[in-house]
Amino acid sequence: MTMIKKLLTTAIATTLMAGAAQAEISNDMVKIGYLADMSGTYRDLAGPNGLIALEMAVADVGGQVNGKKIEIVSADDRNSPDVASSTARRWVENDNVDMIAGLVASSVSIAVSDILEESGKLGIVSGSAASSITNEHCTPNHIHYVYDTYPLANGTASAIVKEGGKTWFILAADYAFGHALEADVTKVVEANGGEVIGNIRHPFPTPDFSSFILQAQGSGADVVALANAGADTTNAITTAGEFGLTQSGQTLAALLLFLTDVHALGAEAAQGIQLTTGWYWDMNADARAWSDRFMEETGVRPTMVHAGIYSSTIQYLNAVKATGSDEAQAVRKQMIATPINDMFATNGRIREDGRMVHDMYLAQVKTPAESTNEWDLYNIVRTIPAEEAFRPLSESQCPLVTSK
Amino acid sequence: MSMILGVPVAVLFGQLLLGLINGGFYALLSLGLAVIFGLLKIINFAHGALYMLGAMATVILFDTLGISYWAALFVAPILVGCVGVAIEYFLLRKIAGQDHIYSLLLTFGVALIIQGVLTNMYGVSGLRYSMPDVFKGGMNLGFMFLPYYRAWVIVIALLVCFGTWFMIEKTKLGAYLRAGTEDSQLMQGFGINVPLLVSLTFGFGVMLAAFAGALAAPIYSVTPVMGSHILIVVFAVVVIGGMGSISGAIITGILMGVVEGLTKTFYPPASSAVIFLVMVVVLLVRPSGLFGKEA
Amino acid sequence: MSNSVNPADIHKTMLDQQKSDHRRRLILNLVLLALLVAAPMVMYPVFLMKILCFALFAVAFNLLLGFTGLLSFGHAAFLASGAYTTGYLLTTFSGLSTELGIIAGTLVATLLGLGFALVAIRRQGIYFAMITLALSQLVFFFFVQSSFTGGEDGLHGIPRGQFLGLIDLNDNLNMYYFVLAVFLAGYLFVQRIVGSPFGQVLKAIKQNEPRAISLGYNVNRYKIIAFVISAGLAGLAGSMKTVVFQLASLNDAHWHMSGEVILMTLLGGTGTLLGPVVGAAFVVNLEYQLSQGPLGDWVDAILGAIFVLTVLMFQSGIVGQVQKFMKKNIG
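Above: the input entities. Below: the structure tokens describing the complete assembly.
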């Protein structure tokens, strides 16, 4: 009796150990779940076209890794952490999803990263802005690609202060994202010898910015910075144009602006605005070639998020190929060990805290005269080196880094 | 410079003026709601979506057919008004006479459909629309720079509001309208086509919303979701004014624009909540609204 | 003899009829209960819990719309206040047992409901709906502004903890049966209210308010009590949802959520006990199915179409239709 029991236990233990030691691809396939806002506020910057970018990446590696098929599932997170977390839970617990891509709204990314950590699966956040995702909310189970608020504030603000924009007026969306951006900008401005002489926190969303623009005008600040996103930013920029903010000598700085936003505004309304971006479709030959393919599929030019989804998926699949495993930690380790230089990133690498750092760019929106077509919108003014752009590890609160 | 509560008087004047202009939008929108509710007892939850449709139509008409801003001010409301008549004829008529709640739920569904379909067709980043050349620039009022377009908005909004009020309260047509919707059998006896009157009234209320949308196109970002937020605010305006009161809706609309403008100056974060706060206070003091008759 | 009708016989057949009705309902309820108990064996438990939470929310809402005739367009405020209170307490005080967090969430929602009711009760019908909507907007702004809600990031990683310090709720099955028990308690509570003399007065108010007033009932008091109970149960649903998903977010407070619960109730069948449950299961499932498939971008438009069709074609909802069908064919 005991003999049999012992034998059985040993047998089970051996099988288990073999399973762990022998790295392999679980369920004979690599399953990627694309979770993003498909119908709401963030639809255009990632959304259905992000899924196409993901499918392009899978097709480009041949639809399989080491002979195992790659499968894609996708879902609309409806910008709701509830919907996102129940979908993500179901994917990892029930449907054998190995990696979750997309992830746009910060609330969604944070909620999903909790589940990834619990279930030991991997996630690659491409759309979120919050730098807290790899700071206080960091987990060993996700990677933050593309950008976050730190380089946005850092890149734009330090460049403008150095150009002589000493006094600042900040118009921030009155919620955590706006507050974080406002704090980051204030720090950068003051560190570079500038001064923040006024700020307004506006409700989210605000359809009419005239009152706030008027107050910004009245402040006499050199620079009016917009620490908001999406429709709030485009509304504020339109109104600033209408009230002649830039004509009266003030500089307008938008801290988070996607190509789709600028496209919606048009060069006429957005000209001259400085912004920081992780990527621009026309910035080099590789980027251009890839965006041409993307445009053939979708009819529009890709945002930095679309490009990031493609690049990160390729990186992920290469790591699976190299390790012969889809186990999260093995893949993550491999990804951290591999420098990234592709159509998306220059000098890219993934840090211990999950932050993917790469060169960022300070761009200026072209004037209507310079712009040759509706998507020809940016001049890249300056490259911000990877090591300068992102929050240094020495300032990190991420336990993965601080405990070392 | 003299100051009031730490705000320079000049800035205050500017904010008051801007508040007045926003009030013009609120007045147009709440007037449309009040016409539909006051005469037809229909709660039109699709009002925001139809406002958005007016703005979208203005942009799309320009992009596809090259229809100018001036023409669009007429064409867009008429087109959207037709959509309104269709909604009344095919949907709302089927539930006429039932609890008002059903019209609210029905139009809520319609709003979701319109918004959902347009989101799929045009995305959410917004459509580009340039300011007509006549309105480029502005004038210096001494205390502020006033873009010509904003001045135009307040003038035309007030004219349309006053015209509507005059038509409903002071003309024969208005009298028919009020009588026809209050006692339809009697008016039918007089040989007046009441169902047609109802369709046209609904269409007219919708046209007001679409007109506000067309006015908004050059200055606000035109997206399929632009109506969903303003709708709730406008509902609050109508409740404050006293539901169904035509003049109440106009005056309250402008008043609330000013109140919101002042809040944006003194305590910006509260500016989107202040109207709801006013609403609660008004309802506690005067349950039927500022201009409403006791129900 | 056989021709003469004995009143006592009629009474007896009526009683028999009632008895068989009662028995039929009992059997139905037992079958449903058995299904719910067995469900997690075949279906994903977290998904089932989501349905149960929304079902409780809809049942609470229906107490107002279906049985009192009041349309609240602000019930998201109660769902969210329950969710945030529970979430905040459970994350801040790590020693707090789960059931206390849930009770606190329910209490806060109940109090908020009292506040709403006192303001809104002054008006009827559409006015009532508009006022509740405006009040819930105020609550929404409060949640956006407050730091304890985590703003648009929401509250995350809320511990599920243990029930009475004994049962580990981190296990999905334990959690499921806990949620099921709370749901059943809420459901039976509403059933009890509806069947009680108090519930009869509510129905009388729904059918003819002036008549209820003339009969000497203090109608406003009844309405307020119904509103407060409904708000409390909605808060309970929110608290449960927070514990299940371990998060609370602004979505719970958004007015779209108020619209969604109306859809669930209307679609399932207002004024029936089972209707909101069926409606909630239907809507949650539909949203899930749509969001996974190629129609993902069309969720809003499809929900809108369902709204329109329900109002136009079958206002009595799924359960109402089934009941009509049963009456016609089975008698």
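Note for the figure: The radius of gyration of chain C is 21 Å.
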